[in-house]
Specification:
Oligomer: heterodimer
Largest interface: A-B, 34 and 39 residues
Mean pLDDT of chain A: 84
Mean pLDDT of chain B: 91
Radius of gyration of chain B: 22 Å
Number of strands of chain A: 9
Distance between the termini of chain B: 13 Å
Bound molecules: flavin-adenine dinucleotide, iron/sulfur cluster
Low-confidence stretches of chain B: 463-470
Largest sheet of chain A: 5 strands, mixed
Strand content of chain B: 15-25%
Strand content of chain A: 5-15%
Shape of chain B: globular
Structural class of chain B: alpha+beta
Largest sheet of chain B: 7 strands, antiparallel
Helix content of chain B: 25-40%
Strand order of the largest sheet of chain B: 15-12-14-13-17-18-16
Low-confidence stretches of chain A: 138-142, 149-160
Chain lengths: ~450, ~475
C-alpha cells in the first residue's frame, strides 16, 4: 500500500466518525481561531475547515496529500475552538489522532527521523538528560545533525529561532541544585491538605526556580507538598506531535508514580502539561485495565492557582509590588482544556501597588504551542507580533504567563520588540512570590 | 474542471496566491452550514476589489463558468454549495468599512465585513445597526444582504432589507451598476436595491453597500417568562402584540431546546418547563419600564408560571447569547440537525406550533422548535442521523407537511434563510407557477448564461433535500 492509501485507511478506522458528524459546520468556532485570523480568513486554516478535511479523507472525497497535512500542521492545537463550539465537538482529540496517523505512516527522511527520535524518545522521557539541555544542544550542533536538518525544508528555521531564543533562557540550575531538592515540603502552619506536585520537564530544568516558587506558595497556603520521585514527562509533546504510543507509556508511568502517594490533589504550574494530565483518561480509553486508574488520576489534576484560591491564599498573605502595570497571557491549554482562566487573574488583581490591564484577545494563543514555534516559525512569529501589539496597547511592564512554552515565547516577543529594558515576562508563581516577599 | 485557458486568464487577474485549486482548497469550500449538501468547486478565487470582480465575471460569462459568491458559508439553504462546480468567489479580502457618515446616518461597507464588526464599529459612535442574525459573529454583510437576514431584533426594527439604502453590483456580463445611495428618498425607476437584497447571489455580485443607521436606544431590559404549556406561550405572544406593544425581541424556545442550550451556555435557563419566552424591550427608560411591566402582566395573565426580569446587563446579555447558540447546541443531541424556517402570520403561531408537534408524532421524528415568535418565524429543527436513510425519508415528509401547513395558514416556506438549493423544490408552493416564471424572467434577463449561482432558488426538478454528492 502507498503511504497515502495507508493513511486514508487509518483515518477511516481510527477517526471517530460520530465526532466528525457532530460538527454541524455552523462556523461559530471561526472567529476564535488564530490561524484563521492570520491567514486572512482562509477556511482550510479554520477548525471547521480542518474537521472537513479530516472527514473528507474518511469519506474518500480527497486524498490525505501534503496540503492536508500542511493544514493539520499549521493548527496550533490551542483548542480555542472547543469552548465556543455549541455542538461540543472534541476537536483536540480528532487532531491528535489524525496527526498520530500521519506521523506513524509517514516515511520521514532520515534527518527528520533522527531529530524526532531524539526529541521524543531520547530527550523528553528522560529527565536526567533534560537536565543536560545545554550539552544536548551542543550535541545537536556538533553531531552534524544540525547541518543535515538544515538541508531539509522542514526545520531549516530551527537554528535562527534558537539563537534568538537563547537570549531569553534563564540560567539553567546546576546539577547539584537539582539533585539536592528534597521530596517533601511541610506546610507553613497546620497542613490543611496534601498535594502531590507534578514537576514537568522544562519547568524542572530551565525553570526550576519557578517550581521552587510554586512549592513555596503552596506551603504558605497551608499545603503539605510531596514530589513523587519516579514521575516523568507528561507526554504532551508526544501526543500533539503524533507519537501517541510514547505518550501512553509516559502516562502509565505517571499514574503509577502518583498512585503511590495519597494526595488530595495533583498540582502543577504548566497548563500545557496539565491539559494532557486531565485527559489521561481519554488517552488511555482503549485500555480497560487503565480506565479507572486514569480517571482517578485525571480527576485530581489542578493548576496551582486554583489551589491557592481554594486555600484562601490571598486572605492569608499580604501581596504587594512596586507600582507597575501587569497584563496576563492565558495559556491556551490551561484555559481551554483545564478551564482555568479566572483564578490567575484574581490572584494578580489583589496585588497591592500594581494595576491589572486586561489585554484584548488575551485568550488567543501566543504562537508557542509546544514545538510549533520551531516547526511553523513563520506563522508562530506572525501570531507573536500580533500578540505583542496587544501587549503594547495595555502599556504593561509585566506580562504574566502560566506555562513554560508561553513564557519563553513572550520573552522572545520582548526581545523581538527590543523592549527588554522596560517590559518583562514572568511566570505567575514567580510574580506571586515576589509579591509576598516585597515589603 | 476549468480548462487551462480559463484558469490562466483568472490567475492573471488575481495572482496565483489568490487562485486556489488544490484539493484542500476545493474541499473546504464545498459546503456551508446546510446538512447533507457537499460538492467540490473547481477553484476558489479571492478578489481584491470591484475591478477584479468585473474581470472575473467577464471571463466566466464568456467561458460559461458557474460562479458561487460566498461570505462565511453560514447559510442554511445550501446557497453556497457549488453543486454545479465552477468557482467559489470569496470576499475575505474585500472586508473594509469604508465610511461611517454621521451626518447622513449611513455606513458604507465592502461585502466581506463581518456583521458583528460592523455593529461594534457603529455602536462605538453611538449609532445602531439593528439586523443581528444569530450568526452575526461570523456572517458577512454580503451574505446578510443576499439572504435578507433577520435577527432577534427583527420584530421592532425589521430585517436587513430595511437597512440597505444602496448597492454597487457587478452583473454577470461584467457591467457594474449602482442602485440607491445615501438618500432617504429615491423613486427613480424600479427599486433595484430591493431586488438584489435576498437574491442569494443569483443576480450579481455585491461589491459595496450603503446601509442605514439609527440612533442607539437608550436602555434595554430583558425578561424571561416560563410556561407549562406551549399553547399558553404562543397565545401570550399574540396577546402582547394585540396590546399594541412591539418588543424589540420576542423569542420562543421549547423544552428540549432549553435543555440543550442550558447544557452548553449554563446561564440558568429553566429546563423543566415546556416553553420559554425571551422578551426584550429597548428605548427611553420610562417607555421600557412601562412596557416591561405591562408585558409581565400579560405573561402572568397568560398563565406563565414564572416571570423574571434580568437583574443586570450581563445577565441579559448571557440570555440572548444563549438563545443565539440554540441551533448549534441542538446539534449536540444527534449527528444531523436539519433546521427549517417556516413562517406564519404571528396570530397563527399557536396553531403552527401545535401542527408541528402533531406532524412530528405522525411521522415519528424528533422535532424541537424555537424561533422569532414575534415575527411568526419558527425554526422547527429535526434531530436525526443522515446515515439512517429510512428515517430521513420520514423527516422529508414531515417537513413537506409542515410547509404545506405554513402556506395554508397564510405563511411562507422561509422567513429568513432563503431558498437556496435546499428549498428550491418548494418555491412553487409559495409562489405558484406564474410567480416562479416571473422570477425566472428577471433572472435570465440579468444573467442570460445562467452563470450566477446556478441551481439555487429554482429547482430543476422536484428532487428533495436528501443528497450528498462529491
Ligand atoms: C447557527 C446559525 C444561526 C443562524 N441564525 C440566523 C438568524 O438568526 N437569522 C438569519 O437570517 N439567518 C441565520 N443564519 C443563516 C446565515 O447565517 C445567514 O443567512 C447569513 O446571512 C449568511 O451569511 P454568510 O456571510 O455566511 O453568507 P453565505 O452563507 O456565505 O452566503 C449566503 C448567500 O449570499 C450569497 N452571497 C454572499 N456574499 C455575496 C456577495 N458579495 N454578492 C452576492 N452574493 C453573495 C451567497 O451566494 C449565498 O447565496 C444562521 C446560520 C447559522 C449557522
Ligand atoms: S463551532 Fe463546532 S459545530 Fe460549529 S463549525 Fe465549529 S466545530 Fe463545527
Ligand atoms: S486548535 Fe487553535 S489553531 Fe487549531 S483549529 Fe482550533 S482554534 Fe484553530
Amino acid at each position: 500500500m502507498t503511504a497515502t492509501k495507508d493513511i486514508q485507511q487509518a483515518f477511516k478506522e481510527r477517526l471517530d466518525y460520530d465526532e466528525l458528524m457532530n460538527c454541524m459546520r455552523c462556523g461559530f468556532c471561526l472567529p476564535s481561531c488564530p490561524t484563521y485570523g492570520q491567514t486572512n480568513q482562509y477556511e482550510a486554516a479554520s477548525p471547521r475547515g480542518r474537521i472537513a478535511l479530516m472527514k473528507g479523507v474518511v469519506d474518500g472525497l480527497i486524498e490525505p496529500d501534503e496540503s492536508v497535512e500542511k493544514q493539520l500542521n499549521l493548527c496550533l492545537g490551542c483548542r480555542a475552538c472547543e469552548p465556543v463550539c455549541p455542538s461540543g465537538v472534541k476537536y483536540g482529540h480528532l487532531l491528535e489522532e489524525a496527526r498520530d496517523i500521519i506521523q506513524q505512516k509517514k516515511r520521514h527522511k532520515w534527518p527528520v527521523k533522527a531529530l524526532r527520535h531524539m526529541v521524543f524518545e531520547q530527550l523528553f522521557p528522560h529527565k536526567e538528560r533534560l537536565k543536560n539541555v545545554h550539552s544536548l544542544l551542543a550535541f545537536y550542533q556538533r553531531s552534524g545533525l544540525q547541518k543535515a536538518v538544515q538541508k531539509t525544508n522542514i526545520l531549516n528555521v530551527l537554528p535562527g529561532n534558537l539563537a534568538q531564543m537563547e537570549k531569553t533562557l534563564p540560567p539553567v540550575p546546576t546539577k547539584k541544585e537539582m539533585k539536592e531538592r528534597p521530596f517533601l515540603f511541610e506546610a507553613e502552619g497546620t497542613a490543611e491538605r496534601t498535594v502531590a506536585f507534578f514537576t514537568g520537564c522544562l519547568m524542572d530544568t530551565m525553570f526550576m526556580e519557578t517550581n521552587n516558587a510554586t512549592i513555596a506558595l503552596l506551603q504558605k497556603a497551608g499545603c503539605k507538598v510531596v514530589i513523587p520521585e519516579v514521575q516523568t514527562c507528561c507526554g504532551a509533546l508526544h501526543a500533539h506531535g503524533g507519537e501517541k504510543d510514547q505518550a501512553k507509556k509516559l502516562a502509565k508511568q505517571n499514574i503509577m508514580a502518583f498512585e503511590s502517594i495519597q494526595a488530595d490533589d495533583i498540582v502543577l504550574n504548566a497548563g500545557g502539561c496539565g491539559a494532557l494530565l486531565v485527559e489521561y483518561d481519554h488517552l488511555l480509553k482503549d485500555e480497560p485495565e487503565w480506565k479507572e486508574r486514569a480517571e482517578a488520576f485525571a480527576a485530581k489534576v489542578k493548576d496551582f492557582s486554583e489551589i491557592l484560591l481554594q486555600q484562601q491564599f490571598v486572605e492569608k498573605q499580604k501581596l504587594s509590588l512596586p507600582s507597575q502595570i501587569i497584563t496576563y497571557q492565558d495559556s491556551c491549554h490551561l484555559r481551554n482544556v483545564m478551564k482555568t482562566s479566572s483564578a490567575p487573574r484574581k490572584l494578580i488583581q489583589v496585588i497591592n501597588g500594581s494595576v491589572f490591564n486586561e489585554m484584548e484577545n488575551a485568550d488567543h494563543c501566543c504562537g508557542s504551542a509546544g514545538i510549533y514555534n520551531l516547526t511553523e516559525q513563520e506563522m508562530s512569529m506572525q501570531i507573536l507580533d500580533y500578540k505583542m501589539e496587544k501587549v503594547k496597547e495595555t502599556h504593561a511592564h509585566t506580562i504574566v504567563t502560566a506555562n513554560p512554552g508561553c513564557l519563553i515565547q513572550m520573552k522572545l516577543g520582548v526581545v523581538r520588540e527590543g523592549v527588554e529594558g522596560s517590559v518583562r515576562a514572568v511566570h505567575l508563581a514567580d510574580l506571586l512570590l515576589e509579591a509576598v516577599e516585597s515589603k | 474542471m476549468l480548462n487551462e485557458r480559463t484558469k490562466a486568464k483568472l490567475v492573471e487577474v488575481v495572482g496565483s496566491a489568490n487562485f486556489q485549486d488544490s484539493s484542500e482548497a476545493r474541499l473546504v469550500y464545498s459546503y456551508d452550514a446546510t446538512p447533507n449538501f457537499q460538492s467540490l468547486p473547481d477553484a476558489v478565487i479571492m478578489p481584491e476589489d470591484k475591478d477584479q470582480v468585473k474581470r472575473i465575471l467577464t471571463i466566466c460569462n464568456e467561458d460559461h463558468v458557474p460562479i458561487v459568491p460566498r461570505g462565511s458559508g453560514t447559510n442554511l439553504s445550501a446557497g453556497t454549495c457549488p453543486t454545479q462546480g465552477g468557482i467559489v468567489l470569496t470576499f475575505n479580502r474585500m472586508n473594509k468599512i469604508l465610511e461611517i457618515d454621521e451626518d447622513n446616518l449611513t455606513v458604507t461597507v465592502q461585502p466581506g465585513v463581518i456583521t458583528l464588526d460592523l455593529i461594534n464599529a457603529v455602536e462605538a459612535k453611538g449609532l445602531f445597526y439593528p439586523p443581528d442574525p444569530s450568526s452575526m459573529k461570523i456572517s458577512t454583510i454580503g451574505g446578510n444582504i443576499n439572504e435578507c437576514s433577520g435577527g432577534l431584533r427583527g420584530l421592532k426594527y425589521g430585517v436587513t432589507k430595511d437597512y440597505v439604502l444602496g448597492l454597487e453590483v457587478v452583473l454577470a456580463n461584467g457591467d457594474c451598476i449602482k442602485t440607491g445611495g445615501k438618500l432617504a428618498k429615491d423613486v427613480a425607476g424600479y427599486d433595484l436595491t430591493n431586488l438584489f437584497v435576498g437574491s442569494e447571489g443569483t443576480l450579481g455580485v455585491v461589491t459595496e453597500a450603503v446601509l442605514k443607521l439609527i440612533p442607539i436606544p437608550e436602555t434595554k431590559q430583558t425578561l424571561l417568562a416560563l410556561f407549562e404549556d406551549m399553547d399558553a406561550a404562543a397565545k401570550t405572544v399574540s396577546a402582547i402584540i394585540a396590546h399594541k406593544i412591539i418588543p424589540a425581541t420576542l423569542e420562543f424556545l421549547d423544552q428540549p431546546t432549553c435543555e440543550v442550550v442550558e447544557d452548553f451556555a449554563q446561564v440558568g435557563l429553566p429546563t423543566d418547563v415546556n416553553a420559554v419566552l425571551l422578551i426584550e424591550q429597548d428605548g427611553p427608560p420610562e417607555v421600557v419600564n412601562r412596557d416591561i411591566e405591562m408585558i409581565s402582566r400579560i405573561c402572568r395573565e397568560g398563565n406563565a408560571v414564572s416571570v423574571k426580569v434580568a437583574a443586570s446587563q450581563a445577565e441579559a446579555e448571557a440570555l440572548s447569547t444563549a438563545r443565539r447558540s440554540a441551533l448549534s447546541a441542538l446539534a449536540r443531541m444527534k449527528p444531523t440537525t436539519i433546521l427549517e424556517d417556516a413562517t406564519v402570520p404571528r396570530s397563527k403561531i399557536s396553531k403552527m406550533v401545535k401542527a408541528i408537534n402533531e406532524i412530528a408524532v405522525k411521522y415519528n421524528v424528533k422535532i424541537c422548535t424555537f424561533g422569532h415568535a414575534g415575527d411568526g418565524n419558527l425554526h422547527p429543527t429535526c434531530l436525526t442521523d443522515a446515515r439512517d436513510e429510512e428515517e430521513l425519508q420520514r423527516v422529508e415528509q414531515a417537513f413537506e407537511e409542515i410547509f404545506h401547513k405554513a402556506i395554508e395558514l397564510g405563511g411562507t416556506i422561509t422567513g429568513e434563510h432563503g431558498v437556496g438549493e435546499m428549498k428550491a423544490p418548494y418555491l412553487a408552493l409559495k409562489m405558484g407557477g406564474e410567480g416562479v416564471a416571473a422570477m425566472k424572467a428577471i433572472k435570465y434577463a440579468l444573467d442570460p448564461q445562467g452563470i450566477m449561482n446556478p441551481g439555487k432558488i429554482f429547482a430543476k426538478d422536484t428532487r428533495k433535500r436528501v443528497v450528498v454528492r462529491s
